[in-house]
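Figure 3 (text version): structure tokens given as input.
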């Protein structure tokens, strides 16, 4: 009994320590983004919003933020559509080479971003898209589609295969069954995939740095601030990026949790 309690408390301390190790630098960046001193130091100066005012009046930062929103929204929509199609194909059909199909579908996130960025740069340069917003959009679709497929595929694994067949037996064609059975069942996971893929796209900078040229996204703009100077605006930009990303991920998680709560079987009354 005593040994079990010691192990349980040790695991709790380990989890808390790990979370502190991960989030302490982020928390420090958030705190120093409101600090009046130019360099991060203790004791802190007075509270100020000057660094936020500086980034929201900087044309380069605003352009980067607009590019990030545009690319993030477009990449999330296209990647979710592709992910849904890939997940539905896996759920609905059995065919030769299906394991290879799944392996290729989940391959992009396993490739080092430097190699992926160089490959994207070489290919997009050959078709004349390198250095444009379209280049970043296409690159992020490739990176985000596997995440969308994984989320929606997980939802399909919880679906009774007889539901779609029952719709067919009641006279619905394949498109009607897709619209009235498949889409309502997978809608929470589709919305979750939209939020997660937008968060992935909004936060990605390595591949965007290779293919963006002068069309910088916000994370690439942060990298520009880091070259040759230490600017407190970096903390403000990092706080905005982190806040946006964590909001999108939290919304996706809430959608999945609400769906799981509704799908959970009710406990029998005593």
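Below: residues designed for each position.
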């Amino acid at each position: 009994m005593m040994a079990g309690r010691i192990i349980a408390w040790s695991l709790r301390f380990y989890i808390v320590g790990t979370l502190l190790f991960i989030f302490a630098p982020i928390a420090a960046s958030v705190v120093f983004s409101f600090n009046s001193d130019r360099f991060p130091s203790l004791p802190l100066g007075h509270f100020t919003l000057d660094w936020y005012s500086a980034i929201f009046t900087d044309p380069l930062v605003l352009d980067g933020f607009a590019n990030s929103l545009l690319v993030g929204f477009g990449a999330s929509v296209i990647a979710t559509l592709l992910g849904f199609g890939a997940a539905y194909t896996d759920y609905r059909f059995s065919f030769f080479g299906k394991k290879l199909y799944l392996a290729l579908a989940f391959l992009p996130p396993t490739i080092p971003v430097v190699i992926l960025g160089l490959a994207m740069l070489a290919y997009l340069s050959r078709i004349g898209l390198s250095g444009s917003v379209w280049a970043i959009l296409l690159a992020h679709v490739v990176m985000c589609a596997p995440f969308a497929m994984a989320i929606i595929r997980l939802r399909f694994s919880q679906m009774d295969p007889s539901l779609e067949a029952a719709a067919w037996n009641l006279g619905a064609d394949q498109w009607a069954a897709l619209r009235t059975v498949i889409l309502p069942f997978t809608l929470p996971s589709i919305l979750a995939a939209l939020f997660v893929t937008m968060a992935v796209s909004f936060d990605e900078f390595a591949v965007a740095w290779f293919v963006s040229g002068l069309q910088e996204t916000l994370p690439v703009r942060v990298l520009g601030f880091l070259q040759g100077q230490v600017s407190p605006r970096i903390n403000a930009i990092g706080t905005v990026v982190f806040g946006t990303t964590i909001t999108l991920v939290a919304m996706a998680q809430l959608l999945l949790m609400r769906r799981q709560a509704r799908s959970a079987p009710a406990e029998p009354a005593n």
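Residues 147 and 242 are 19 Å apart (CA to CA).
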